[in-house]
TrEMBL record, chains A, B:
Keyword terms of this UniProt record: DNA-binding, Repressor, Transcription, Transcription regulation
Sequence ranges assigned to domain HTH lacI-type in this UniProt record: 2-58
Taxonomic lineage: Bacteria, Bacillati, Actinomycetota, Actinomycetes, Bifidobacteriales
Gene3D superfamilies for this protein: 3.40.50.2300, lambda repressor-like DNA-binding domains
PROSITE patterns: HTH_LACI_1, HTH_LACI_2
Pfam families for the chain: LacI (PF00356), Peripla_BP_1 (PF00532)
InterPro entries: HTH_LacI, Lambda_DNA-bd_dom_sf, Peripla_BP/Lac1_sug-bd_dom, Peripla_BP_I
Protein name: LacI family transcriptional regulator
Top-rank lineage group of the source organism: Bacteria
DNA sequence: GTGAAAGCGCTAACAG
DNA sequence: CTGTTAGCGCTTTCAC
């Protein structure tokens, strides 16, 4: 491990001078040629500052605490983590990850994170929902990913569920479907209501009257399968918008049983939560991927900007469905995000 | 942030004494009643040591670098991370996660991790394979998860693929199946070969002669579907062992097309990589879950023990299919793991 | 412009 | 047994 001291000795200046130079704060304070010598030596011995020592003085660490509640049981978390991780790396930050399924241990974990001097928290939810950020976390900058903070005071990013529903349905309409079914979730979670609204709007905008016989909100297993079958019998659909891959599965099964083929006899657009369809049968165009990676990426960017600009102004509450600004995530993806940002009142 | 200094002042002793006491190294060095006073004060003001300051002296941080290559594109990583995270938390460690899909940035990321003073690396692969640990990482304790390090000098944990194949097939035999098909992967990855071996052994042990007409190693999409159909026509199976959920999917489709029901007309045991079957149609007993969480958990435990016991003895190479020792992972799961451990030669 | 000195919170060597 | 001293690597006054 190379230190400033070594540079100082090699160049015959003091540690303080080295500090100024390597931190780029030598303008008009250190003679240019000395600065040059120092920089040269630093490069030569491959000097890298020790972030721990630095943070002991400055009490900021360039470490972000990635807190995910309820996430262990889902395969989605990975994408959010990866997005956050990529953004953080680009901005010179590190991620410390902590999950808190065990209710009781939360406080302990958060305390530990604080002791490690994290500069802020990225609070990720397992599925899009109204989120209550634990008060302990609020003491530092926080951003919510895959959820919307209840009070509107914390920047959040979540999938644009309405947009997903609208867009999916639109695609089915454009594909020539006349009787488009909605296969949703029986639980009244955010995504369910909003995607359904999007579905309805798209139908309305196309001058199609929604038929309640074409809607099946189901759970799991045989019961769900039966409900889908019943809906198909009653509604005779030719296109399907499916809430997630479990629901798509029921339609594929129903099709197979009738000797029909998805993509020829029936059209289907589904959200591919588990990525299983992407690698199996469904042609790419019929799946919508939730923007987990992108949410992680944006959340980390936003968090860093808050940390560095001390951007904590009291705030308005705005929503936008525009493409993510300055995101530039490296993965091409169908991005449907909804940003809840605090706007400073200027 | 509470400090030792505060405790020292409040109790009228020196910081060094406080240090000894709060670190539990006061046996026969500090008078019991002083120690008691110090401890009381520490508890009263809720003292928690500052790990950063500590590591500045000791140069170990109780931070583990979680490095996952090629992991961003799969939903599996989450489980490994969560397992590692849980184990680490229990042992008083933190996880810093880093993914390195971008080939070029690896070195930079690893260097950053080192600068943050990680005590060791957890190197996670995206699917079970022979792993080459980047040399930079080898300078610190390393454990490989979801892969087997090529030289056998690095402790590794991977799914017991053979056991998975054997067990799955055994279950089908016990369920009364006579003609058991194997639907595998056309790519010659580790899991493919080993699960197939397990399948063959189970058949052999039951006195069933393997029929090549019952084997289909396939890729994706319609081609795969067709191959599975052809195999079914040719082999007339009544039971299926499927390599993963994509492959199970083809069988479910084939069944539906024939008006058959899995679990009644056909038996199926499949590996449920994406967890989609677990929540959809398949009864629990027919799916095998890869032990991602458990691998992460074990790997972290092992790594910490190496870090703390400086367990770096040159080593034998042993394999075991026994249940994980001292694992006690909180999740109930069908655990099939293969441990590659270095054994000290004593 | 530059360096000496102090200090972040903690541990470790050594006196007493 | 306990306190003093020194120092981990860095930043930050504050004299010179």
């Amino acid at each position: 491990m190379t230190t400033m001291k070594e540079i100082a000795q090699a160049t015959g200046v003091s540690v303080s001078t080295v500090s100024l130079v390597v931190n780029g704060r030598d303008q008009g304070r250190v003679k240019p040629d000395i600065a040059k010598r120092v920089r040269a030596e630093a490069k030569k011995i491959g000097y890298r500052p020790n972030p721990l020592a630095r943070s002991l003085r400055t009490s900021h660490t360039r470490i972000i605490g990635f807190v995910s509640e309820e996430v262990a049981t889902t395969p989605y978390a990975g994408g959010i983590i990866m997005g956050a991780q990529d953004a953080a790396a680009r901005l010179g930050y590190m991620l410390i990850t902590v999950s808190t399924d065990g209710v009781a241990e939360e406080e302990r974990e958060f305390a530990a994170l604080k002791r490690y001097g994290v500069d802020g928290f990225l609070y990720a939810k397992m599925y899009n929902q109204l989120a209550d950020v634990p008060p302990v976390l609020r003491q530092l900058p926080v951003v919510v990913a895959n959820g919307i903070e209840r009070t509107g005071m914390v920047p959040s990013i979540a999938p644009d569920e309405y947009g997903i529903g609208y867009n999916a349905t639109k695609r089915l309409i454009n594909a020539g479907c006349q009787r488009i079914a909605y296969i949703g979730d029986q639980d009244p979670i955010l995504a369910q209501g909003l995607r359904f609204k999007g579905y309805q709007s798209a139908l309305g905008d196309a001058g199609i009257t929604a038929d309640p016989k074409l809607v099946a909100n189901v759970g799991f297993n045989q019961e769900a399968m039966d409900a889908v079958e019943a809906m198909i019998e009653a509604g005779n659909p030719d296109g399907f918008f499916c809430f997630n891959d479990s629901r798509s599965w029921y339609v594929y099964q129903a099709a197979a049983r009738r000797g029909l083929t998805i993509g020829r006899d029936w059209s289907l657009v589904g959200v591919d939560n588990h990525r299983v369809f992407a690698e199996t049968l469904a042609p790419r165009l019929t799946t919508i991927e939730l923007p987990h990676y992108e949410m992680g990426y944006w959340a980390a960017c936003k968090l860093v900007s808050m940390i560095e600009h001390k951007d904590e102004s009291p705030a308005l509450h705005t929503q936008t469905r525009a493409p993510l600004p300055s995101l530039q995530a490296p993965r091409p993806a169908l991005i449907h995000c909804q940003l809840i940002e605090k706007d400073s009142v200027r």
